[in-house]
Structures are given as C-alpha cells and as structure tokens.
Amino acid sequence: MEPRPNEPTAIPGATLAVHWLGRIGYRDAWDLQKRLAAARAADRIGDQLLLLEHPAVLTLGRAADESHVLAPAGLLAARGIAVLRVERGGEVTYHGPGQLVAYPIVRLADRGILLRPFVRALEGALSDTCAAFGVTAGRREGHPGCWVDPEDPLPRKIGALGLRVERGVTYHGIALNVSVDLADFDLIDPCGMPGLTSASIASELGSRDERPSTESVARAAASFAPSFARRIGATLAGHLPPDADPVVERAVLEGLVPERLAGAVPA
Q: How far apart are CA 18 and CA 117, in angstroms?
C-alpha cells in the first residue's frame, strides 16, 4: 500500500513533538505514557505524540465489561495475549501487528481546546489517513472512532478511540487498522458491540492477503501525524518514518522522564 499525495500544511502554533517508536510492548508504552503525562502536567515538558505498533494484546477501559472478551483464557495464554484493564474510556480493544497506535500527550488548556473538539481532531486525522491511502471513512454519530460506510446499517470499524485526561493532560488515544489480521478481532466483541465488523486499510483496498507489517504502519504514521497537528493548530517537530529511528526516539523520551512510576503498570 502506498498513500496518495497528502501534505497538510501545518498551522503555526505550539510545538507538538512527534516520536516514531516502531513495535513496543503495551506495558512499556503504558508506563512511558504515564510518566510523560505526569511531566506534562507539571509543565516539565511540552506536548508529545507517540506513534507505534503493539504486539497482540487486549485492553479493557476502566468500566468495560469483561464478558466482551470472547476467547477462553487458555487460548489467550497459549498465544501470549494479555488482557489488561487500563484508565481510558471505552470497551475492550484489540491491539496488534499491522495497527497504528497514536498516544497524544497534550495539555488541553495550553491549546485552548476542549475535550470534544480534541476528539474530533483525532477522528478527523483518522479519516485523513484513510483517505491518503484511498479509503473513504469518517465519523459515526454516537460511536467514537472511524468508520467505513458510517451511515450504512452495517458499518465497518477501521479505527478505535479511547482517551484519559488527568490534570488536564490527555493520554491513551487511537488505533487505526492498517494491515492488521482482522481474524484477531474474533477474540472480542470490538468496542463491546457483538456482531461488529472490523475493517482495515488493506481489506478495504482488496489486499486481504497482505500480512501485518510494521512498514505499513510506519507509512500510516507519517500521514496521521501532520494531519492531527494541523487539526489542533500545532507545529509538528521531530522525525517521521522513514527518517525516524525508533531506538533513538525511545532514548529521547526516556531522557525526558527517566524516573519510573512505582506501581503504575502491573507486572
């Protein structure tokens, strides 16, 4: 898959530092997010945008119903898929290879933006990224995220959204299905909706045999970041794929928040 030309013009404003981390374990990224959010709330760092991909994992929002995890515990254990309850809103979500995950660490008041417009900016950037690859998708009223044929009786979900705001700072974020194995969504009722059909950029383009790849996620990340920055009036700073080095970017972030948060992430 190659994106169509789509070069949004950044609107001058406070800097949004972007970091491409490649594939990173969920617990590691969760701990890193929390440290960054705490540092941002204390005004020790500026706004950050983490772009990455996770190994297979299921996460439950803080009030999610565990019955929407359909796979038996033995199957999940055999496949090494953890089930973690986290602070974000929303129901159960699958993360895995071939899926772009973006975590914006943003202090909303500093940008003069309320939570609902911020959510709309994330949804708009999801739609823009799909469009860059030739897939039409958009909002579905009352159902956060990004949908193909959102007005159809049987829409297909291509992007999920779940945020947490603490001390005025956002973390958690979005997940966009790029080349992910859609069969893995059979492990759950996605977003707590039995019978929901999941889609990906690859499946919508007819590339059903495409294997999940970090390279496809990197291309989507390079489209998502400038769109999101434009939509919140930010000036994007940093390197995007293919120029970003995940090892260097991880070291930069660890240098910003070297201390770990005791008890923040379960073992």
A: 20
Locate the domains of the chain by residue range. Answer: 15-256
DSSP letters along the chain, please? --PPP--PPPPS-SEEEEEEEEE--HHHHHHHHHHHHHHHHTTSS-EEEEEEE--SEEEE-TT--GGGB-S-HHHHHHTT--EEE-SSSSS-EEE-TTEEEEEEE-BHHHHT--HHHHHHHHHHHHHHHHHHTT---EEETTEEEEEESTTSSS-EEEEEEEEEEETTEEEEEEEEESS--GGGGGGB-GGG-TTPEE--HHHHTT-TTPPP-HHHHHHHHHHHHHHHHHHTT-EEEE--TTT--HHHHHHHHHHHS-S--TTSS--
Q: Give strand pairing partners of 138.
A: 147
Mean pLDDT of all residues in 62-81? 95
So what's the pLDDT on residue 259? 81
Asked if 191 is an active-site residue, the reply is: yes
How confident is the model at residue 261, as a pLDDT?
58
User: Which is catalytic among the residues 1, 191, 199, 201?
Assistant: 191
Q: How far apart are CA 231 and CA 11, in angstroms?
A: 8
Under CATH, which architecture does the 15-256 domain have? 2-Layer Sandwich (3.30)
Q: Which pLDDT belongs to residue 1? A: 60
How far does CA 19 lie from the centroid of its chain? 13
How high is the pLDDT of residue 10?
A: 37
